[in-house]
Specification:
Nucleotidyltransferase, domain 5; four-stranded mixed sheet; five-stranded mixed sheet; alpha/beta
Length: 251
């Protein structure tokens, strides 16, 4: 008989989730997946349906306590199900957190590195492209060598529109690297240039060598950023979820 585990990657306003089928014997598999907005109804019915099937609920959340409480209320979990929140730690296996106060590291960053370290013992760069773009380095010995936190595409665009009067447009072109020939293209392509340029410079500063180092891309904009920087094969959709699962099962 199989049991189901609901896993959530929660941001400040929205969340991604997957429902894992976890049989007593045999390989686990993704039964369902989706996303929803904590402050709205979009996607809520789907995750509530998934929650009804789950006997375990694991969460990676960077939201505040109020948002987390709101989220759990929306899930309407049975009393027998006790949700578990992952926390950043001083170490996991041979992965060592560089922060003096490890709990202050965003748990999504930590879990992505946990998953990457489980895949390779090579030096690696973990790039999570979501609301924020995070770039983290893990040494061959498992030491977190530091990282960067940069506003993501939506935050960059919002800041530009908030502080300028004349940068306005109706159309929504794709993020590309060629120079834009309209205000809309110039904004979107400029953001793409900033995001891809940050990744390329971070790799260059750390003397990244493709023949001996690994790079992982994840997050909502991760696939596009991997394509823009020529690392298409390095995209991993579920890196945070995989780290969440590893930490949860190790308790």
């Amino acid at each position: 008989m199989s049991e189901y585990c609901l896993q959530l990657d929660v941001g400040n306003s929205s969340a991604k989730w997957r429902l894992m089928k976890m049989p007593a014997s045999g390989a686990k598999s993704v039964a369902e997946r989706g996303s929803f907005h904590i402050d709205g109804q979009q996607g809520l019915a789907e995750i509530q349906s998934a929650a009804k099937q789950a006997s375990r609920v694991w969460l990676s959340s960077v939201a505040d306590a109020h948002k987390n409480a709101q989220l759990l209320s929306q899930l309407s979990l049975p009393e027998s199900v006790h949700p578990w929140f992952a926390r950043s730690a001083e170490r996991f296996g041979d992965l060592v957190n560089s922060y003096q106060e490890p709990s202050r590291m965003g748990v999504d960053r930590w879990l992505a590195m946990v998953a990457a370290r489980s895949i390779t013992t090579q030096r690696c760069c973990v790039i999570d492209a979501g609301s924020a773009l995070t770039i983290d380095w893990v040494s061959q010995t498992g030491q977190h060598d530091g990282g960067y936190i940069i506003p993501g595409p939506a935050l960059m665009e919002r800041a530009l529109l908030l502080d300028t009067d004349n940068v306005r447009f109706e159309e929504a072109p794709d993020y590309r690297l060629n120079p834009g020939v309209s205000t809309a293209e110039a904004v979107r392509h400029g953001i793409a240039l900033a995001q891809a340029g940050a990744v390329e410079l971070a790799l260059r500063i750390a003397h990244f060598h493709a023949d001996r180092d690994r790079v992982f891309f994840t997050g909502g904009a991760g696939r596009l950023l991997a394509e823009l920087t020529g690392h298409e094969s390095s995209y991993s959709q579920d890196l945070v979820f995989e780290g969440l699962e590893l930490v949860a099962l190790s308790r």
